[in-house]
Structure formats: structure tokens, C-alpha cells
Amino acid sequence: MVPTLFGYIGVGLAMGIVANTSHLSVLAVLIMSLIVYAGSAQFIMISMLLAGSPISAIVLSTFLINSRMILMSMSIAQYFKKDSLAHNIAIGTLLTDETFALSMNKLNQTKQTLSPRWMHGANLLAYVVWAIATVIGCLLGNLIADPNQFGLDFAVVGMFIGLLYLQIITDRSKTLRTQLIVVLFVAILMYFLMRWFPGNIALLIATLCGCGFGMVVTPK
Amino acid sequence: MTLYVLLTILWCGLVTWLSRVVPFVLIKNLTVPKWLIEFLSFVPVAIMTAIFIENLLV
């Protein structure tokens, strides 16, 4: 949980700093983090707001970037089928890349079950930390000229390689070989797709292809 | 904060929320076919790899 939080705080700070340099107020940043609550989408929103893009274009971009949430939600929702609709809606509302990845690691330690309580706890913690980190970033923005000098964006890379590693070594439902083949396939596909498509579109295509590829290479 | 910024946040918040919640409601009320469960079981490893590469290359 702790490394995930560090990655999260890093991205949140970076988001706040970028928002500040794009002339968004602290209040706007706070409301955005509370209502939209999606890292990469918020970065895009800020740059498009700064450019004065039409609202419809910003909403469409946000939808495209966040469409991976549809996949993550569908994937995790199976574990909460027996829980009430209210629990399901609450879990979906605060689900993010990070808590999704955490819960997939958790699943591997808990014989493939997740409790709504644990999920709400992780989600709420991430939600609050995100709001605070982005606001602090926005306040710090006044003092910092170039946010990239701290390598905060690298925190995300570190966080995901850690979570991916945990996923691969702990998911017992698949063989190590199958998982590594899928990782390799998705990585190579991403590398090429990102030459022709925006990152989030490449991500969706690569993920969908990776899932199909995984089904094919799984020993029957 | 201008009305333009506020409206953008509200609309983006709505589409993001729907992307998160609608799958939960659908999965809860439908019987998911076995092939879809198998397909979705690869989402974690595939999406984490993809996010990692995306962040690495940007």
C-alpha cells in the first residue's frame, strides 16, 4: 500500500503544479480532483482548458482516456456481484488505476475474494490523498518554475512496475509463462501503437488485444 | 473559477463516473458468459503493462 501511496502523491503534486502554472485556482483544482478524480484525464483537461477548447471536445477526450475504467470496472465488478447495489456503486465511484491494481494484488493473497470494506478503505484513502496532494501541488506551484525537474512523473513508472511485478508473481490462476508472454505481447504492441495513436487509444487497443492473446495462449 | 471551467469539470465528472459505475451495475445484474470472464481475467496484467509502457514512452 505504501509504495502505491508515494506514487500517487507524486502524481497529485505534479498535477497541482501543472494546474497552477495553467492559471487554475486552488478551488478549481480541489473541485476537479473531487468530481473528476482521474489523474491522466485531469492533465488533459487542464491543458485543453488553457487552450480554450470547446467543452464537448474536452469531455470526449476525458471519456476516451477514461474508457479504460470501463474495462477495469467490468473486471473487478465480478468479485462484488453478491454485494448490494449501493456497495457496487460506491466502489465503482471511487475506483482508480491504483486501487484496481492494489485489489488485484490483494485478490492473490485472499483466495480470490475481496471484501467491500477493504475496497472502500483503499478507495477512500486514495481519494483523500489525491485531493490533498493536488491542492498542495497547486499551492507549491507558485514556488516552482519547472515541475519536471523533480522527476515526479517517474514516480508513476516506478509504481506500476512494482504493481505489475507483484501481479505477475502472485497471480496463481495463470502460469508464469502465460503471464510473461502476455506482458511481452502488450509491451511490444504498445511500443508500435504509440507511434500512430495517442497514448490512451494505444493503451485500450493493446489491453484488448492482450486479453484476447492471453485467451489464445492459455493451455487448455 | 469561470463558468466555463466549472461546466467542463461537471461534464467530465459525469462521463468519468458513468464509465466507472455502469459496468458494476451491468455485471451485477447479468450472468457473465465464461469466455468473457476469461477475457477479463487478463485485464490486470495487460492494462498494467500498457500503463507502464505508456508512462515510460511519454
Label this structure with key terms:
heterodimer; A: 220 residues; mainly alpha; 2 domains; 10 helices; globular; B: 58 residues; 84% helix
Question: How does this structure look, described?
Answer:
The complex is a heterodimer of chains A (220) and B (58). With 220 residues, chain A is mainly α. Chain A is 78% helix and 0% strand. Chain A has two domains: 2-173, no CATH class; 174-220. Chain A has helices spanning 2-21, 26-35, 39-50, 55-77, 85-93, 97-109, 116-140, 152-170, 176-196, 199-217. The radius of gyration of chain A is 18 Å and the shape is globular. The model of chain A has no long low-confidence stretch (mean pLDDT 87). Chain B has helices at residues 3-29, 34-40, 43-57. Helices cover 84% and strands 0% of the residues of chain B. At the A-B interface, helix 2, helix 3, helix 4, helix 5 and helix 6 of A face helix 1, helix 2 and helix 3 of B.
